Amino acid sequence: MSSLYETLDERFRRAFDAISPNADPVLRPSEHADFQVNGALGLAKALGASPREVAARVLDAIDLSDLARVEVAGPGFINVYTLDSALAERLRALLSDERLGVRRRDSRRVVVDYSAPNVAKEMHVGHLRSTVIGDCLARLHRFVGDEVIARNHVGDWGTPFGMLIEHLVDMGEADAVASLSVGDLDSFYRSARQKFDSDEAFRDRSRTRVVALQAGDPETRRLWRILVDQSVNYFSEVYAALGVELTASDVVGESSYNDELASVVADLDAQGLLVESEGALCVFPPGFTGRDGEPQPLIVRKSDEGFGYAATDLAALRDRVSRLGADEIYYVVGAPQSQHFQMIFAVGRLAGWLPDEVHSEHVAFGSVLGPDRKMFKSRTGDTIKLISLLADATERAREELLRRRPDQADTERETLAGDVARAAIKYADLSTDRLRDYVFDLDRMVSAEGDTGPYLQYAHARIRALFRRAGRDGALELAPDLSDSAERALGLALLGFPDAVGSTLAASQPHRLCGYLFELAQRFSSFYEECPILSASENQRESRLVLADLTARTLAVGLDLLGIAAPDQM
RNA sequence: GCCCCCGUAGCUCAGCGGAUAGAGCACCGGCCUCCGGAGCCGGGUGCGCAGGUUCGAGUCCUGCCGGGGGCACCA
Length: 570
Description:
The protein is α/β, with parallel strands linked by helices. 55% of the residues lie in helices and 9% in strands.
């Protein structure tokens, strides 16, 4: 069944179409009614009638008697008041729908490229947003029926691997593996870097090693593979700790495209797109200019005949369309890469690798800032590891749980502390418009008062407690009474879930779903204060349990789409 | 110099061209014979500035101001 909004929109669209072909009714949620239709105001001039007359004509052309009461208001708005009976019947129908009204759509093959940490470096706050946002988008697409191919474009290639491999050799494989396997990647990298900067002989060995790596020397590749495998193992641990659904099988690192790079160049050259400039092989897509107003190149092959990340990204793009058959490709990468992706897409279009019917989008995001509004760093100026971020949040959550539930078993508390910590961090990240920078404030996100992940978890857990107390697991399948304004407001919000999911997906903006869930939780809290449930008469109790059940399930499904657990108790 | 993103309440943020711009935090009042108070109810002289488009602009366009970022071989 279509959502309430969709149903109203279809009806109004038909009525408007009869008056002015293809006119948009501009149906919106309203503070003055359940919904309002704004389209009449815009049509008035063209139709030579007053807005109120246009609105009246629309109402003549529409029959909503089964759904809503309507009236012309103000200068020409149409206020829509949904009938309680229609709301109640739709709510009843949701009870047997695990998907809470969200329909599956025709499956699209969707590549989501996200996280992308670097081999031999620990994951830090810089990877947080890509990982969390990408995971959320992947979940959303899967939920509506898309076939999602997650791609973790790990940085596993390039000149630093010369020094990393030489450092591995110096340490001895066994010691190196021991060090890396416990996740101490940063000190490994730092030691290698330090030797590279201070020791000329080491520098020479490193350069030689890079050449051997690129030439495919078996022993060198074996050593390289150790670094990659150890790192990927470590990433998997971090993803598990974060509750992110990426696995080792989603890792398709930069090196995976090595064999494609020559043919990328050849293909571009064959199409006459390649220009040699200052020794580098470049494509100059129209519309891009650089510092001196000169055309801006996308450097496909460097003057030293090595390949940069543009070549890799082009190869990946080509692969995702031609071999994976992607209908949509999302790159969850920071906003500073905006121009790079514009150029990649432009060249992809020029080369015919990215057909018009394939949607390719840079899902950009802003930075995580510290309290000083600068890039979030530790007091010593180091980047902050995701693991320690999570540990800090878990510690806070543990303290809070200990304060509120001292009787709780330690094992249960540990599990919950992790759930709450993940909720705090992820929700804080997902709940603001991703394009903006945001200030990382652990106190605010864990404190769980207000618009936070833990607040939503609490709202859910409280409802589950209600059912435990009632000795039940769900509600009877009946149409709830909505005569109390708090009941009605909650019921109306519940019916908006499909629209929230749809809008979140259409814009790749998780904060829309966050906003919806927070408002839903608030409306539930108001309802919960206003309307006694278990102590009410049997009819009223059953009716209110319907609303409670649907709220709990909507929160659980919604939180799951955000990648956040919804524990039954806290 | 050019390009991109962002400027909304003391702070952190919503706001899909529509009616009187909303939340959370903080602050001040209420609400504890109440199903979990991590809650609920009430309290607000704020859209950086100036033009323009529109019946209607926080939202679209132009120009400024302020912050961040990018602009040839690191990814």
